[in-house]
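Our preliminary data section would be incomplete without showing what the modeling component actually yields. Below, a chain of 494 amino acids is followed by its predicted structure, encoded as tokens that our downstream tools consume directly.
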Amino acid sequence: MYCLGLDIGSSSVKAALVEVKSGKSILSVHEPKNEMNIISLNNDWAEQDPNMWWEYTCNAIKRVCKESHVDSKKISSIGISYQMHGLVLIGKDGEILRNSIIWCDSRAVSIGMKAFSEIGEEKCMSHLLNSPGNFTASKLKWVKDNEPEVYDKIYKYMLPGDYIAYKLTGEINTTRNGLSEGIIWDYRENKPANWLLKYYGIDKNLTPDIIDNFSVQGKTNSISSKETGLTIDIPITYRAGDQPNNALSLNVFNPGEAAASGGTSGVIYSITDNLNSKEPSRINHFAHVNYTDDLKCIGKLLCINGAGIQYRWLRNHSIDASYEKMNEMASKISVGSDGISVIPFGNGAERMLNNKNIGTQICNINLNKHSHGHLYRSSLEGIAFSFMYGIEILKNDNAPISVLRAGNDNLFRSKIFANTVATLIGHEIEIYNTTGAFGAARASAILNGDIETFRKAITKNDHVMTFLPLKNKSEYEDAYLRWKKDLERIVNNK
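Predicted structure:
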């Protein structure tokens, strides 16, 4: 038997199959071949048609079954991962009322800021662990204020994963994990934050029924069977946003464990059971996949805009350079890059710098001494130092990190980058070869909360390597302190 994982992103939809008995990954496909379109009618707007997600979901399911030669009758469960914070609105008959306002849309920023100010920081942070910010609840308020004719037709609001589950099953529901992503979950009261909806003038009855994210959430029906090729009555047994799901895929469940990703931007997602935070903007807090009434595991998410894009920019603007050649040249340079500091924040406003936009800065170049190799190494070190800077913010906000796990993606393929981070944090970094779709598939097979068996399957099938802290830690610490001084000088002058 097999389990099916779906990952509904803003760029593509992925479908993956995993063998239940062994936990072995079989095949993953994505649709479309090129990135999905994002509609931007105004500056800072970002929308997508949910019908497009469903079309590509159907195509991906058909492809993964065909190309793997797996009969859909052998699929025993479905897990769903999805882009977080989006808003999907449906009417009484299940029709889409407007395009989804997706995660990277920032039209509701001022709405969330006003709510945070008027409700008060103490109430928001103690109950929501966040500012209402630019999340789902604030986006729904924007619709109410600006498109009242749409708001009046709303039967239920949904997150993107809720909508795909609805299309598969015909049942409308959500999870408390999902509500926490929309900043609609009250951690102190352990129930929906209806007081926030009331403040926004939003009818609490628009919230779907709440189910556990590890549970039978509905079963495929005759309509979805015709469109996907799946058999009828396959249960959806898992649903989570992409960042919590990525952490699950990397075997991150317990306080002290953290997941990291290092693509164009970077993410650190750390688990804590402490319901206190003094970071309303630099860190976002979500109920983790294993959050329960008795075990309140919180995911603290910190984004780093300026990460892999810095190294990619260097590659694109270097003659005949490849990542392999750049890494080779960088490896010949000593730790600390002979004094050069690259401040890699050239990808817009940086949230962990309190939304300051300082750009990329290259400090301390000696024109008689430094070479391309110095520039490459200092860039990798600068990105690693930015991760360490973020980890320090998390640690200072009640999230100590004892284990860091990461996917086998761009930055973590670099020994310089991974060794630098591992040495500075003083803990190993475990590298896993997995994806969100595979993680969602495996998670759908979790029975009776048996997470330990799930964890063993990940370790057995996906673990690639482990980076250990190096012995010459003082050299890395000196380089990091010098970098941090350069950063603070720049930030304070801006």
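The chain has two domains: 2-244, 250-428+468-494. Residues 2-244 form a domain with the Nucleotidyltransferase; domain 5 fold (CATH 3.30.420.40). Preliminary results of this kind motivate Aim 1 of the renewal.
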